[in-house]
Amino acid sequence: MKRILLYIILCFSVFYVSAQKSAALKVDSTKVVVKQFDATKIDTYKNDKDFIYKVTTQPSLYQKFKEWVSRVLRKIMSWFFDDVEAPVGFILSFLRALPYIIAVVVLYLIINFFLKVSTRNGIVGTTNKKVVKIDDDEELLNSQDLPKLIDLAIKEKDYRLAVRYQYVLLLQQLTAKKIIEWEQQKTNEDYIKEVQKENIHQEFESITRFYDFVWYGNFNINLESYNKGVVVLEKLTAKIQ
């Protein structure tokens, strides 16, 4: 009982002390002054270029062209569609991709050109060094010694090189007959297309495939295979004489 009474007295003492401290707190009577911004100065800062941090760039010619195309397309599409956003958006997307498409096409044409030149001028693999070779296609085509070179290659059993000389001699004859127009950058496929309307098309395509297989495929043939190819070539030569 005494303990309970003691607890009650302590509780009232704590509440009393707290009330005394609260009463002792001073009320803040400081006046709050609300500051107003000077609108005139704000406008002055807005017009001062030193305080303008937004960078404005002039639209490029391509952007102007794209905006002009967009306006024209919207005007045209409005005649056919109620909602022009979808078709106009598709066309604008295509125009954005157009420079990349052109770049890819140009790159393809450049690579294709160099591959053609490399194919026409390249000598694949090694051949018998005893045989005199002419590596330049134009010099070879204008050479009057092709029959001698063919005989020499056969004598040295370099039938692969003999096939090359035989084929170039054929091109020389076709050029002389104005059946084809020889150009260094042309491929054998180009020549096949040129003789398409002639009665020699089938034989020429056959001997061209044989030549491509032997020469560019770096395939060393024997005398028997060489003679089979020469038979077709002789038939073709007889037709153009």
What does this structure look like?
The protein is an all-alpha fold. Among the domains are: 61-120; 137-240, no CATH class. The protein contains 10 helices and no strands. The chain has helices at 2-24, 39-47, 61-77, 85-121, 137-141, 146-155, 159-176, 188-194, 201-216, 223-240. The longest helix has 37 residues, at 85-121. The chain starts with a helix and ends with a helix. The model is unreliable at 122-135 (pLDDT under 50).
Uncertain runs = 122-135
Helix content: 55-70%
Q: Describe the global form.
A: elongated
Look at the helices and sheets and give the structural class: mainly alpha
Strand content: under 5%
Overall mean pLDDT stands at 73
| Separate helix tally | 10
**Major pleated sheet:** none
Radius of gyration: 46 Å
H and E order: HHHHHHHHHH
- The number of strands is 0
N-end to C-end Cα span? 143 Å
Defining key terms:
241 residues; mainly alpha; 10 helices
Outline the secondary-structure elements.
Layout lengths: L1 H23 L14 H9 L13 H17 L7 H37 L15 H5 L4 H10 L3 H18 L11 H7 L6 H16 L6 H18 L1
Helix pairs in contact: 3-4, 6-7, 7-9, 7-10, 9-10
